[in-house]
Amino acid sequence: SSWASRFEEYKIVCSLYHGTKRLAPDISTSLKPLSGGGLCERICWDEWLQFDKTYLCTIPRETRLCVMLCGIRSAQGVGDKMADKGEITATGRKLTYPLGAAAIQLFNEKGYLNQGPQLVPLMMGISSDPIMPSCKTLLPDSVLLQVNLPDFERTIFFPEPLNAPVSPIRSFDLLAPEVRSMVVSVMEKESCLTFAAEELEILWTHRHYVTNHPSLLPRILQAAIGWDWASLSEIYSLL
Q1: Which of 68, 82, 188, 238 has a CB 3.0–4.6 Å from the CB of 101, allowing a cystine?
Q2: What is the pLDDT of residue 71?
Q3: Which residues does the UniProt record annotate as the domain C2 PI3K-type (predicted)?
């Protein structure tokens, strides 16, 4: 590869996302050099990574594991094309360059948890992106990354939500005047504009009072506190 001789060491950065929401702080492997021998050059990390305080039973079905290959080099000689893109971060005397990335669905389309070894082709020349397509196509410049997901030696699937209760319908007029004023100001905001976290929280907190405004449903769903299994019955009751 054209980049193989440019860097001293490499690492993999792992991110966990639901949509564009980061579910846990990023974690990364240790730094390893490129090694030759055999049929091709390779980098071997041979280590487990763990997202602390993140439990399988609390992650949404659509959770994605984003992996990014990064090259590390000394800070001298940063005037090359990659540095000009502004995609580097300095840590002491070292620079980190994103080289390629991929996204892995933790649950497949049938709701079963992906387990064991996964051979993942990286899309080169990009940074990690939570909304990038799941990388299943081997391109001419792809780097193959073997990711070993935990193997629980049994089939694990995302269970169907409990029967959704009937969502209570409450009159908008029952809200206190000052609260009603805040909700109205959010409701009148153009849908093409970005909603602040505080505005989404207002919609979610008072979701049962705005059932006569179906145009707000996409924003209310966006404001949902969680999309884990335990939260789905409440979310589905709004549909």
Answers
A1: 68
A2: 92
A3: 1-165
Q: 99 with 12: CB under 8 angstroms?
A: no
CA distances (Å), origin 4, targets 11, 20, 148: 13, 31, 24
Residue 65 CA, chain-centre distance (Å), reads: 6
CATH for 9-149 is: 2.60.40.150
| Residue 191, amino acid | S
Tokens of 32: 């390893």
Higher confidence at residue 215 or residue 84?
215
Q: Is residue 66 pLDDT above 90, yes or no?
A: yes
The CA distances from residue 67 to 27, 50, 102, 103, 147, in Å, are: 10, 13, 5, 6, 9
Q: Scan for tokens 């090259």, then name that residue.
A: 71
**pLDDT 10s digits, 142-201:** 889 999 999 999 999 999 988 877 778 888 888 888 888 888 888 788 766 778 888 888
SS3 track for the chain: CCCCCCCCEEEEEEEEEECCEEEEEEEECCCECCECCCCCCECCCCCCCCCCCCCHHHCCCCCEEEEEEEEEEECCCCCCHHHHCCCCEEECCEEEEEEEEEEEECECCCCEECCEEEEEEEEECCCCCCCCCCCCCCCCCCEEEEEEECCCCCCCECCCCCCCCCCCCCCHHHCCHHHHHHHHHHHCCCCCCCCCHHHHHHHHHCHHHCCCCHHHHHHHHHCCCCCCHHHHHHHHCCC
238 has pLDDT over 60: yes
